[in-house]
Structures are given as C-alpha cells and as structure tokens.
Amino acid sequence: MRYLPDAKQMKTADSFTINELKIPSLELMERAARACVNHIKDWKINLNKICVLCGSGNNGGDGFAIARMFAWEGYDVTAVLVGNRDHCTPETAHQIEQLKNTGAQFKEQFEQEAFESEPYTLIIDAIFGVGLCREVGGRYAQIIECVNQSDAVRMSVDIPSGICATTGNVLGTAVRADYTVTIQETKVGLVLDPGRSYAGICVSEDIGIVSLPLERDEETACTLEGSDYAALLPKRNADSNKGTYGKLLMITGSKGMSGAAYLGSLAAYRTGTGLVQIYTAKENRVILQSQIPEAIITTYEKYDVNELHRLIDWADVVAIGSGLGTKKTARKILKETLAYTKKPCVIDADGLNILSEHMDYLCGADCEHFIFTPHMKEFERISGLKIAEVKKDRIAALRTFVKEYDVTCVLKDSRTTIAKPRERVAVNLSGCAAMAKAGSGDVLAGIIASYLAQGLSEWEAALLGVYIHGRAGEIIEKEQGAYSLLARELAQKAGTAMTIQEEN
Ligand SMILES: NC(=O)C1=CN([C@@H]2O[C@H](COP(=O)(O)OP(=O)(O)OC[C@H]3O[C@@H](n4cnc5c(N)ncnc54)[C@H](OP(=O)(O)O)[C@@H]3O)[C@@H](O)[C@H]2O)[C@@H](O)CC1
Ligand SMILES: Nc1ncnc2c1ncn2[C@@H]1O[C@H](COP(=O)(O)OP(=O)(O)O)[C@@H](O)[C@H]1O
Ligand SMILES: [K+]
C-alpha cells in the first residue's frame, strides 16, 4: 500500500521529520534537489541551456539547489526568482546565497522578452509546490503561460505549479510538464485528473521524510500495489465445485436492454463465480439463453414478491441495477430487494437512478453490505451535489457521502476512487481511455459482484474489482490499440488480468 497525501498531510510529514527526527530542512532540500538532478540526467534531456524558475517558498529553494548542482557540473544554467525576495523562506534565501560563485546566472526578476529570446532546452518549474493555496493569477499566470508556450522540455519539481496537490485541479493555470519528480510520496493531486495529465511522466523519490504522520491520519488516501491485489485474489482449491465459488443473482436488463445482463454475468463467470442466475424481463429470455447458456435465466413479466424472495434466498450475493430501467416494476423490485436482502449487494446504474429519487429505500436496509458503483452523473443524482461541486474535491465529497449512508461507494471516472466508512479512501491507478465505451460499467458491476460471491468483503471486492477491470482494459489496449475495445472483451479479459496478477 502506498499513501497518497494531500498538501496538508505532506506538510505535516515534512515538519514531523524536521522537528521530531531533527533532520534539517536544508538537508531534505539537498536530497530533493539531488534526486531531481539524477532523474533529469537519466531521462537524457538536452541540457544545453537550462532555466530554473523559482518561487519564494521551499519549492523555489529546491529549484535554486538544482541550479547550483548543475552549475557545479559546468552546465549553462540560469536561475530566476519569480517570487518576491522579501517573502523568501529562510531556506530559499539561503539557497540564493549558495548560488553565488557557482557559475549559475541569477536573475532576481522574470523578464518575458529575455526569457523568450533564450534558446532554453530545459525549463525546471520550481514556482509552487504543496504550498500553493489559491488561484494563480496576474504575473504568475503570465509566467506559467510563457513556460507552456516554450519549445523546451518542461520538468516540474514536486508538482506542476498551479496544480492543487489535494484535488488535482488546475488553480487558474498550471505548468504542463513533460516530467515531474515528486518528493517522497506521490501527492493525491498527481494521480487525480487533470493533475495526472499535467504532470507528464511522474516519479517519486524517497528523501527520508517519514510516513508515520500519514499512517496516523486516517484521512490520508492510498493506493494498493501489485502484491496487495495478488493477496486479495480469491483462492481456487483443488477440492472444490461450483458451489464453492458462490451463487450470484443478477437483477439486470430490461426490455431492449439485454446487453447489461449479458455483460455483467459474463464478467462474473470470467472472474471466477461458480453460478450466476439472471433475473430479468421476459423479453430477454431467448437472447440471453443463446448469448450466455452458462447462466440460469429466470424472467418476470410482472412483479412477484414471492419469486423475488426465493431468488434472493437462493443467492449468496445480489447485483442489481445495470440496464434495469426505471419503470414501475423496476422500482418495486429495487425497493423490495433493498428491504429484504441481508446479502452483500452491488447497486449499479438504474438501481442508483431509481434510488436517487427514493433514498428512503435505504431506511432500515442493510446498507453496510451495499456497494454503490456510480459514474459522475449518477453520483450527482444520489448525492445531490452537482458534478462541478464534486470535482472541486471528489475525495472529500465521497467521504462525506459514505459516512452519511454507511455504504461502500465506487466513484467511477478516468481515475476511480473507492470509499467506505472507517477505511482510507483508495484511488485506483489501473485502466485507460480505451475503456470509455458503453457497457464498461456493467462489466465492472459483474466483476465486483463476482468477488463478493467468492467470499471477499465489500471493501476487498470493490478494490480488487476496480483494479482488475482496469488491468483488463490495459491488456486490450496493448493488443488492439486505444479505439476498438468492446465491453464484452473487457469481461472476457478480466480473468486473464487476474492470472497476470497472480504471476506478479
Ligand atoms: N524542508 C521542507 O519542508 C521541504 C520542502 N520541500 C519543498 O518545499 C515545497 C513546499 O514549500 P512551501 O511550503 O514553502 O510552499 P511552496 O509550494 O514553495 O509555495 C509557497 C509560496 O507560494 C506562495 N503562493 C502560494 N499560492 C500562491 C498563488 N496562487 N499565487 C502567488 N503566490 C502563491 C506563498 O505565498 P504567500 O501565501 O505566503 O503569499 C508562498 O510564498 C514542496 O513542494 C517541496 O518542493 C522539499 O524540498 C522537501 C523538504
Ligand atoms: N478514460 C478512462 N480511463 C480509465 N477508465 C475509464 C475511462 N473512461 C471510462 N472508464 C471506466 O469505464 C467504466 C465506465 O462505466 P460507466 O460509465 O458506468 O459505463 P456504462 O454505463 O456504459 O456501462 C468505469 O469503470 C470507468 O472507470
Ligand atoms: K513546481
């Protein structure tokens, strides 16, 4: 597991290391700068003419130290203070002093004409780091625009200036970096979009800042690593039969929407479930029987409460909502399912759309065992927060939502975030744009339900499901390119994605 701290959490870890472990701030700065220099050299960037743009905070201090190191080695380097000299931190003021007699050029002010006339091959952005605390405007915005218009390679120290380390949002404007060296832990704003795309190739470098404060703070987000996911994989025993791997009831599909039922059940079988029963509208029987003969098909024309209870009693796990529609029968089925089931239950798509108008269905329900899988629009509906509002700080919005309803929630997006009360918010790092196709979400609901059926907890199933879904997308993108993925291929490849994981 890796921590993904926000700005405040990272600053707390910095201060703890400096104040409690007595590692001087300047020593950490020296290590940070050295790490940046080493990475820049590894990347084989053209170093003919280097410009380092430094703010007055400690991010600027890192920048001046980098300039000094390159100057010592004889490179042509210019360091520009883009901040106010009177506002320099003691460390940054010290670094400016250290720059004297190294051969580096020092400019106390940014001059646009001079900057644009120089044939810089590398611009190092050390304007703002985790201390960015408001919209970038005025002079700073102009400087960042100049940087983005330059033909030089752009490398950011810690985080592209203008990106919020806590939310990944652009605060006014931001440097579009080709490379970023982030100090110690990857900030959560570097993995959430748009911060992720502004950072370019991003590496983190351990400089000895301790993680204890991050561990202590339950609000520090995290991401899992390959070995963590491998440990979650359901075991396949020699002495087993289909009953060993769970009975999954999928209440999915409606008239003209058989695809959702097909995709979810295919994904569940492909990822290991022993037995899948689909409960769907009667019009889907023939098509589903021919598309997926491995599934048991039970159909309804009208709502029959006894039949629904019998099916839920049969199942170990329920998944409801994909392609269900929002008509009267669908509403009745959802209401009764949520009231009756004590089994783990994935609620997706139309299940969430119906619920958004009837949040009272959750009263008295076994919410602790529910996993919601909304995309942004569905989350807007169930949370009552506009998408723009959610995007301002999606982790905070998600955390508040799961606390209120006591559910596990998988907020799907280009970067999917997963939350549950009393757990750290997790950000999934697998997946790719090839997956932005209709039906991808139905597949995810099937995979998560499949892991529940095989005995994983709600939290484990959500984490592993989202990861494997993304890995399957990556495998397809590698084989077929970024355009041709079909949701059914995602379902088919999900099992392969699990095998690869086992080998890691
Ligand atoms: N020893 C350590 O602790 C280590 C720290 N390290 C490095 O330090 C970085 C954090 O340093 P930091 O905390 O000094 O903040 P930083 O990002 O430089 O910016 C603060 C300055 O920006 C200004 N400012 C903010 N927003 C603004 C805006 N919109 N528009 C204009 N100005 C704005 C703000 O001004 P003020 O609000 O005071 O007016 C202040 O002057 C971290 O990312 C890492 O690179 C590493 O070397 C490891 C060891
Ligand atoms: N650009 C992207 N990068 C990574 N994953 C993506 C991207 N676009 C979509 N996805 C994933 O694909 C799935 C789409 O789900 P959803 O919007 O519910 O699809 P549908 O309703 O058509 O089944 C989600 O799991 C989402 O995370
Ligand atoms: K920066």
From TrEMBL:
Transmembrane segments: none annotated. Binds 1 potassium ion per subunit. It comes from Dorea formicigenerans. CDD domains: YXKO-related. Homotetramer. This is Bifunctional NAD(P)H-hydrate repair enzyme. Catalyzes the dehydration of the S-form of NAD(P)HX at the expense of ADP, which is converted to AMP. Together with NAD(P)HX epimerase, which catalyzes the epimerization of the S- and R-forms, the enzyme allows the repair of both epimers of NAD(P)HX, a damaged form of NAD(P)H that is a result of enzymatic or heat-dependent hydration. Catalyzes the epimerization of the S- and R-forms of NAD(P)HX, a damaged form of NAD(P)H that is a result of enzymatic or heat-dependent hydration. This is a prerequisite for the S-specific NAD(P)H-hydrate dehydratase to allow the repair of both epimers of NAD(P)HX. GO terms for molecular function: ADP-dependent NAD(P)H-hydrate dehydratase activity; ATP binding; metal ion binding; NAD(P)HX epimerase activity. Its cofactor is K(+); Mg(2+).
